Amino acid sequence: MNFSELFQHFLATDQESPILASGYRKLDQLAIGGFKDELVVIGGRPTHGKTALMLNLILRFSYMQQQKGFVVMPMANEEYFARQMFSMITGREEEVSELPEDVALDGMTDLKDMLKNRLKVLHRPANLKEVLTMAKSWKASYVMLDDFFQVIDFLYGYKLYHESLKLVHSFAKETQIPVFIGLMSTSSVDKRGGDRMPELMDLFRSDILCQYAHKVIQLYRPMAYGIEWNMEGEPTDNLVNLDLQKNSIGKTGMLSFEIHPSGRWEERSI
């Protein structure tokens, strides 16, 4: 990128929406500062951390940075979502009854404030056009659609998939609001051969997906495959790898995170 392109990306004063930084230094470096007017795919096999990463991004965007978000999580009910966010806000894994009273009250107050003023969360599938319209009316700084197949009531049909991705892509560009979608891999090493590291081809119709997605992230947890130790002899039960495989603005690369008992993710050096 030349200086003019970098200026427009970072500093132009006529921008309607600022760049949304995750606060994860290495991830933001790969993303050239953060996320803006783009469709970001978070993919992976079940239990590899798609929803967990989304929850951590919500924590950083709407709790730490006070940004407004519109979230659809049809696979998580209201209490589960609140419990996970409460644990990450307090940074504690204990039950509420086991926490010091001031920690519990402060955490619940912060959670209530975030849910009331900066976060709209739907826990049921909804019409995609309606979701995007509501997000725009809410003046959200980001949109998070966990389990995209559930959101669009998808039965692996080419036409609906293509039209839905095109709609989200256009929305992100027109509104300058980044949209994150969770996408379960439909293929695996058992089907395609090779090693267990995720590949773009593991995602349903990756050829169509890459036409519209600006960034494609895939997650990989060694423990999910029964790999208990990494190459450095470290236990893998709390480790997850993030592979930024496609990036139209920035670089690609692999990052590693440690999962704390509270659910928070922390960047590691690889």
UniProtKB/TrEMBL annotation:
MF-aspect GO terms: ATP binding; DNA helicase activity
All copies of domain SF4 helicase, residue ranges: 20-257
Domain of life: Bacteria
Family annotation (InterPro entries): DNA_helicase_DnaB-like_C, P-loop_NTPase
Pfam families recorded: DnaB_C
GO biological process terms on file: DNA replication
Name of this chain's protein: SF4 helicase domain-containing protein
Organism: Litoribacter ruber
Taxonomic lineage of the native organism: Bacteria, Pseudomonadati, Bacteroidota, Cytophagia, Cytophagales
